[in-house]
Amino acid sequence: MSLISINPATGQRIHIYGSHSSVQLEAALKQAHAAFLGWRELSPTTRAKHLRALARTLRTQRDDLAELITAEVGKPITQSRAEIEKCAKVCDYYAKHGADFLADEHPTGAPKSAQVSYEPLGPLLAIMPWNFPFWQLFRAAAPALMAGNPVLLKHAANVSGCALAIEQVGHDAGLPSGLLQNLMLPAKDVESLIKDPRVAAVTLTGSTGAGKAVAAMAGAALKPCVLELGGSDPYLILDDADLDHAAQVCAAARLVNSGQSCIGAKRLIVHQKVRSEFQAKLVKAMAGFRVGDPTDPATQVGPMARHDLRDALHAQVTKSLRRGAKLLLGGKPLPGSGWFYAPTVLTRVKPGMPAYDEELFGPVAAVIGVRSDEEAVRLANQTPYGLGAAIFTRDRRRARELAPELDAGMVCINTAVQSDPTLPFGGVKQSGFGRELGVWGIRAFVNVKTVWSA
Fold this sequence. Notes:
Blueprint: E1 2-6, E2 13-18, H1 22-39, H2 44-60, H3 62-73, H4 77-102, E3 114-120, E4 124-127, H5 135-147, E5 151-154, H6 160-172, E6 180-182, H7 190-195, E7 201-205, H8 208-220, E8 225-228, E9 234-237, H9 243-255, E10 267-271, H10 272-287, H11 307-322, E11 326-329, E12 344-347, H12 354-357, E13 364-370, H13 373-380, E14 388-392, H14 396-402, E15 410-413, E16 432-433, H15 438-442, E17 446-452
Parallel strand pairs: 4-5, 4-7, 5-6, 7-8, 9-10, 9-14, 10-13, 12-13, 14-15
Antiparallel strand pairs: 1-2, 3-17, 8-16, 11-12
């Protein structure tokens, strides 16, 4: 089976890649297992040196790697450069703190002769999507490598060039052979990989459907997994919010990566007292974002990554309008080459509309009016997802009281939902389980071993 990379800004084919054969796959698994036997014996201090080398290599190659992301995904070049820098940052973070996270511990109240240690499990299979092709891999790979686990990458077919580049970065940084490998495989071959005894654990970032399938496979093989899945993040704009600030933040959060982010500002739940004023400011803010050639540093919104994704988004918008939503901005594909979609704002969004019930993975914001904080929380939680949420108010105490009521893995106050190497990242409900980043990320794929002497 061929893996095809297409430039979404032009619709032109970049390259056709061949899948790995069964012989090549077997060789990769053998290499990963052999690499694990040597890598786990290295001290965390030594592993940290390799992670710092990864960070240096990423920064040295930043511009070339960013151009590759932009070519395959359509992400504006400034955002692609920032993605590479964030990957370097997470490598540096675990290089600096990983040894402390992995140090033996004596739990409070435990017998004096007992301790807990953290030991690597073995090769980690990382199944990754296309929208942040470097970051989503490195946020899982950096802690896994620091913990002593090799990484096998199975990437999305449309970013096969990025996948190969990631493997090359590991080689250029001097990582031991077999420690970071890319597997050019179709999705149908994932199950056999998960079943292989040389694969110790699985992590997946992707759709809820893919997460359910992978969780079932991992469960059948009794292997740990972390799943970071879809989201329909609610942003609550309360009646005392700074509306200028909220509109700018919500517009930027909705349009990052052309709206193709699991933590984008997808449902804007606004108090009726300020809804008209807020949505007018939101429309102005979103209309002010520059759409165009993603290789131009001035561009803020590029194309969607695939034509089928644009078609599906437009169908959701059209269906929502037929069911009573009101269009304030955009609402259509843009003419010309490439898979561009106009920044769009919908209001009067209600249950039964795709803009309310489903994840909109593109540059479309849905405004939902409410009359109280209680109704805002109820509607925010009225979704199968639970990844992120945000609250905008001048009263931080009010926000702190509302935050525990939101069903989400993270709640941000007066700022966009975002990830940081120091903090746990992940969701609840249909947004998955497990956590990446921080101490939680490095301990996701280790054997937490009790050693207790008489």
